[in-house]
Amino acid sequence: MNTIHGQLVSAEESIFSGGGRYVALPGELGELGISPRHTPLITRIKPGSVRIETADGGEEFVFVAGGVLEVQPDCVTVLSDTAIRG
Known about the structure:
mainly beta
């Protein structure tokens, strides 16, 4: 199973770091879904819920108050001023 490394970082701490199968989050122009080998992308994100489907089949939910998303083929990074684990 293909996985992508994900990092979700707030101004205070690292909220999540690990492998995942899928990441869904609220982009500036609509909902974004990121899978392994996604095209590189940098965009702003709106306040809302980030859903991470982990490599073991579980799910992580984190609320972010906006921020920036960077996608590379093997890594997804979310930078947010405020993030709260769901």
